[in-house]
Amino acid sequence: MVLAAADGPEQPLPFSHKAHAGDLKLQCKMCHPNPNPGESMTIAGPPVCMQCHSAIKTDSPAIQKLAAYAKEGKPVPWVRIYEIPSYVNFSHRSHLQAQNTCADCHGKVAERDRLYREIDLNMGTCMNCHAARKASVDCGFCHDPR
Predict the structure, then answer these.
(1) Which of 138, 107, 103, 145 is nearest to 123 (CA)?
(2) Domain limits at 98?
(3) Which of 17, 48, 73, 125 is deepest in the core (most CB within 10 A)?
């Protein structure tokens, strides 16, 4: 189900991808590392954010809350927008190596102040993309044969 921006989940801290990835041109991998074996993109912890925010917008209540997470060694409890079902084998790394972009599946994130599910990721969406890029559409390519 595709949502509108206003329907995006309320996050524990306001975060603008438009400001960070759009205006500042930070690369996705700076905040979303891809640890081995490469299936998941993760979210960097507060210490990464504090590399800049220890000096930028320090009077902001949101940044002060971020600093508290960092000081306590706690992750920010972000609300997920997308989640890969457990019955799907998916590797972010292999898709990135095949020259897919984050925007291909997640939409124009760098233009968004508030994220929402703007692309309906389902089997049809994936199959159409695979067919267009001449990638395998064999069931066992993405699903464990049972």
Answers:
(1) 138
(2) 11-43+78-142
(3) 17
From the list 142, 140, 115, the residue with the least C-alpha distance to 126 is 142
- Rounded CA-CA distance 1/142 in Å is 21
Q: What is the pTM of this model?
A: 0.86
| Non-local CB neighbours of 129 within 8 Å, separated by 6+ positions | 104, 135
Phi-psi category of 12—alpha, beta or left, where left has phi over 0 and alpha has psi -120 to 50? alpha
Q: Determine the Cα–Cα distance for residues 38 and 87; give it in Å rounded to an integer.
A: 17
Residue 20 falls inside a structural domain = yes
Tens digit of pLDDT for each residue in 7-45?
789 999 999 999 999 999 999 999 999 999 999 999 999
What CA–CA distance (Å, rounded) separates 5 from 19? 16
In the block, residue with structure tokens 């124009």: 108
Question: Omega of the bond prior to 37 within 30 degrees of 0, cis?
Answer: yes
Give the number of other Cβ atoms within 10 Å of residue 67's Cβ.
Answer: 17
Domain assignment of residue 71, yes or no: no
Confidence tier at 145 by pLDDT (50, 70, 90): confident
Asked, for residue 70, whether it belongs to a domain, the answer is no
